[in-house]
Amino acid sequence: MFTPLIRVILIIACFVMAILFYLREDYINTGLTILAAGLFGYGYFRYGTVYAAFQQLKKENTNKAEKLISKVRNPNNLSKQQKSYYHFTTGIIASEKNEFDVAKSELTKALEIGLRTKNDTSIVLLNLANIEYERKELSSAKEYLNKLKDYELKPLVKSEMDKLTEKINVAQHDI
């Protein structure tokens, strides 16, 4: 949730406080502030800026989401859940840029790892169907839409699915 800069500032502040507590011979608070610094460092490597980027993506602020997700240096060090949302966010950003091969790869990885909510999974499936439609792979797009029917969809996802289904039907009829 914190950006790397804020985490570094918090870690430095914790170490400064630890030194002050040590000079006062307050060893309990010294240990606690060093522990807090360690937790901020752990959070940096384990969670990165994925949550903040995902929140920006929800607000449709793709540029800020891209900047935040690019700060994750090594996604393999992320926790399983954060890794899936890293791929989710990266895939959606690539889709927005019309980089469909990258988007499909990233969104597929997010599905394989597993997302926290069924709504997020349905959004990924809808985006994969849309990518396949854009790539003119209509049968594959229909497969993703069929998988999507197994989920209880929110109204927005349902309306987008209906629109895409109609587009696919029109495209198949034209062929």
Protein model, in words:
The chain is built from 9 helices and no strands. It has 175 residues and is mostly helical. The mean pLDDT is 88. The protein has helices spanning 4-23, 27-47, 50-58, 62-69, 80-96, 100-113, 118-134, 138-148, 155-174.
Detail the topology: elements first, then pairings.
Elements: H1 4-23, H2 27-47, H3 50-58, H4 62-69, H5 80-96, H6 100-113, H7 118-134, H8 138-148, H9 155-174
Helix pairs in contact: 1-2, 3-4, 3-5, 4-5, 5-6, 6-7, 7-8, 7-9, 8-9
**Average pLDDT over all residues:** 88
Order of helices and strands: HHHHHHHHH
Q: Low-confidence runs (pLDDT<50, min 5 residues)?
A: none
Principal-axes shape call? elongated
How far apart, in Å, are the first and last alpha carbons?
A: 48 Å
Given helix and strand content, the structural type is mainly alpha
Count every helix, treating DSSP H or I runs of 4 or more residues as helices.
9
